[in-house]
Design a protein that fits this description.
Layout: H1 35-38, H2 47-52, E1 55-60, E2 67-72, H3 73-76, H4 80-89, E3 93-96, H5 101-113, H6 140-155, H7 158-168, H8 175-188, H9 194-211, H10 218-225, H11 227-247
Parallel strand pairs: 1-3
Antiparallel strand pairs: 1-2
Helix pairs in contact: 5-6, 6-7, 6-8, 8-9, 9-11, 10-11
């Protein structure tokens, strides 16, 4: 989702011939704004300014699991999605009935602090999470960041998308966890989102001949449930084989080289 477009007024009213052009130092190039005011930097928006803004209610989920959160309006306007909501309705309550509570809380943490737990350390690893196993065997840790990714896409926050995607690749996981992650990716992203889909197809394209035996039939079910996944994995395997053939100097690559026995 693109950043909000900024409307810029093009051109200025023409200067009439009888306008006194003397005193040019009083304004900047005929703009009518004193030079010292035009050069004056815009006031810095402080964190206190954000906290002084009105509170907005966020209604997350539906049914018995519905949760009400509060956030400052000025921080929420960093998202084009929320900005549009405010401009169209002006209400102090926004409903996010289809979104995950943990993902929304991560987005709010990011808006307030510029990061969300677990943070990326200077070493490039993720800080330890005492509540999570060292190896993700269910997909919960992968899905945590995948849900932040898809929510950031919805909210128009590309930097958060990039951050969450980078955290996905720092998770140590099992084959079953990877299948759960792949299922979520292909269920909640578009086929044009190669940023997240291509690494998934690459992962299984390189390892499916081994890992499919560890998935207890889940790999087969995934291929049948999401044909795009099966096609992307197959395409990766065929492209890799084509590149290997080209390196071997196989001149038959790209041609129908298979020959059938002809009847006599």
């Amino acid at each position: 989702m693109a950043d909000p477009e900024v409307q810029i007024s093009r051109g200025s009213p023409p200067i009439e011939a009888d306008v006194d052009m003397e005193g040019g130092d009083a304004d900047a190039e005929g703009t009518g704004v004193p030079a010292e005011e035009e050069d004056k930097p815009a006031p810095r928006v402080t964190f206190v300014d954000y906290l002084k803004s009105p509170m907005v209610e966020l209604l997350i989920g539906s049914g018995d699991s519905q949760t009400l959160l509060m956030a400052h309006r000025a921080l929420l306007t960093k998202s084009p999605f929320f900005t549009e909501k405010f401009s169209s309705s002006g209400n102090a309550r926004i409903e996010l009935v289809d979104d995950d509570l943990d993902a929304v809380s991560c987005v709010l943490e990011y808006l307030y602090t510029g990061e969300y737990f677990p943070h990326k350390l200077p070493s490039g690893a993720l800080e330890p999470d005492p509540s999570a196993p060292k190896i993700d065997d269910s997909g919960a840790q992968l899905l945590k960041h995948a849900k932040v990714y898809t929510l950031a896409e919805k909210l128009g926050m590309p930097l958060l998308k990039s951050l969450s995607h980078s955290k996905i690749h720092l998770i140590t996981s099992t084959a079953l966890a990877e299948i759960a992650y792949a299922r979520y990716v292909y269920a909640h992203t578009t086929r044009t989102d190669l940023t997240i889909r291509k690494p998934v197809a690459s992962f299984w394209g390189q390892r499916s001949h081994v890992l499919r035996h560890e998935t207890e039939g889940s790999f087969r079910d995934m291929c049948l449930e999401y044909p795009e996944f099966a096609f992307d994995v197959l395409s990766f395997v065929l492209d890799a084989e084509e590149k290997r053939a080209q390196r071997r100097g196989d001149e038959e690559v790209g041609k129908s080289a298979r020959k059938r026995a002809r009847g006599q």
